[in-house]
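FIELD: query
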Amino acid sequence: MPRLRVSRELFITAIVAVAVMSATCYYLRPPNPSYGDISIEQARRLIETNSDLVIVDVRTPEEFATGYLEGAVNLCVECDAQLLLDNLDPNDDILLYCRTGRRSANALEILRENGYEKVYNMLGGITAWVDAGYPTVES
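FIELD: result
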């Protein structure tokens, strides 16, 4: 059986094309179709593409006043976890964040236990958001 000879240039071109297509597919994929924990990059894309997204800062009002994501509402989970259930619609897409991600992870569990399914938790919180150079609003 004859051997197929592929030129080195053709082989390198094919490898580069596959790499570019893979990177493009990664960037264009939905942030997280199963909801739950997402990176700050995925959160930013979600904010940019989902105009109906409800952004919830679960930190204290004092922390919130130092800077928050544009459009965020402040529902302090440590002050009163019932605030989440009283003020959020289970049918909405919800993005939760706090300072580092711990309190928002707790808020995610509270919401899930109460039937909320479309909830995201921004890993790293606003600290990671600011460290990445993304914008915040101050009161």
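FIELD: remark
The longest strand covers residues 54-57.
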